[in-house]
Amino acid sequence: MGAVPDQRPPALESKAAAEWDEITTMAPELGRCCSRYLAQASTFLAPASVESADNALRQLTRWLIAHTEVRAVADIGRTDIEDFKVWLANQPGHKPGRRVSANTRAQRLRTLRMFFERIIEWDWAEAPARNPIIAGDIPTRPEPLPRFLEDRDAARLMAAARAEPDPRDRLVVELLARTGLRAGELCNLDADAVVRIGEGHWLRVPVGKLRNDRYVPLHPQLVEVFAVWTAENLEHIRRHRRLVADHRGTLDRHGVGRIVRRVGRHAGVVAHPHRLRHTLATQAINRGMRLEAIAALLGHRSMDMTLTYARIADRVVADEYEAVNAKVDALYGQALPADFETAGMARLRREAHARMLGNGFCTRPVELDCRMESACETCSYFQTTVEFKPTLKRQRDHAREHDQPERAALFDRLLEGLGGDSA
């Protein structure tokens, strides 16, 4: 049975179909019920969610046939699920020598629990009397911080991508790194996804994991990359109706992952598509981008998803920790030299005084180029009122002191717009 055509490689699709044929032959009632459920689920779930249900149900039904006498969904009981949980926890994971992760187990059991819950609610004759999977069966989801590339590694990866002889490799890596797209979103970009709105270029991201679409602003360098790519591959883009298409056809998420890992090896860093998404979010939040803007950029449906990145580099914690050091050292009787400062705190102090903005500072490391100088004040969404006049004057004076005439002129114009004395 092919639950999700066109969403995975043909080899995987044919393997799933062969396994369902085998399951249905050995346990007709199990196979028919699961097939019926997947057909129903495909009418309201995203393709990736249907594929996830397909995988979980195949795993459960194959285990039931191999280890129990159960041959119908209605006969699945609590003891069967408890034994299946033990078996699942001991399965090998993707990495050699490791067992399947708690996240994977939770996802499988949550998917199966929803399967039982739905068919019971739909009042199917094949449904068991009660849901054999309870909430306590699902492992607590760990909340590790997202793994991202540090600035130096991110720069090395970008340099390696630009040096790749295959233009598709550069396009994929730079597109992921500069937009935060998920791998599946990149693969499904329509041929006309790049649009011009006003003076800028935007990328229309299709409906994906969270069933929403959005527009993402494109960096000028990425616009240039797209222009060259489109000119060289226009025929293939039109034929496949996908923006990332050439003489080799389109990409799937597995191909995207292979490209990112290969370029990462050439750069000497460990990289995969979602790590580039985490990297962009971390770069943005560490440099003062508002959480609401980051959520819109990444297509988060809930701010809780975005708040994860706020835990990565909490400057308030760093500042307060530094402030309390003297008191703690006095308590221990270890007075430190007056000029003592850890390397990490010194870096934070340098970044915090890098450049004043209207509502804080730009903490961009000095070694990183920025083509969006004074972007906050020039943004169409930026507003200021008379109560900010003292702050704007200090910023104007700061720009003059640091020989930044363009920034000084910018603040002069803002002050003039507020009226009154701007001297």
- CATH homolog superfamily of the largest domain: Intergrase catalytic core
Helix content: 55-70%
* Strand count: 7
The geometry reads as: globular
Q: Please give the alpha-carbon distance between the first and last residues.
A: 76 Å
What is the number of independent domains? 4
Strand order of the largest sheet: 1-2-3
Query: What fold name goes in the CATH topology slot of the largest domain?
Result: hpI Integrase, Chain A
Secondary-structure topology with pairs:
Elements: H1 10-26, H2 28-41, H3 47-67, H4 78-89, H5 102-121, H6 151-162, H7 167-179, H8 183-187, E1 194-197, E2 200-205, E3 214-217, H9 220-240, E4 245-246, E5 249-250, H10 253-267, H11 273-286, H12 291-298, H13 303-310, H14 315-332, H15 343-352, E6 355-357, E7 360-362, H16 375-378, H17 389-401, H18 405-418
Antiparallel strand pairs: 1-2, 2-3, 4-5, 6-7
Q: Care to describe what's here?
A:
The structure is a single chain. The chain folds into 4 domains: 10-137, DNA polymerase, domain 1 (Orthogonal Bundle), CATH 1.10.150; 151-309, Orthogonal Bundle (hpI Integrase, Chain A); 314-352, no CATH class; 356-423, no CATH class. The strands form 3 sheets. A 3-stranded antiparallel β-sheet has the order 1-2-3. It is 57% helix and 6% strand. It has 423 residues and is mainly α. It starts with 9 loop residues before the first helix and ends in a 5-residue tail after the last helix. The protein is globular. It has 18 helices and 7 strands. The model is unreliable at 1-12, 350-356 and 365-374 (pLDDT under 50). The protein has helices at 10-26, 28-41, 47-67, 78-89, 102-121, 151-162, 167-179, 183-187, 220-240, 253-267, 273-286, 291-298, 303-310, 315-332, 343-352, 375-378, 389-401, 405-418; strands at 194-197, 200-205, 214-217, 245-246, 249-250, 355-357, 360-362.
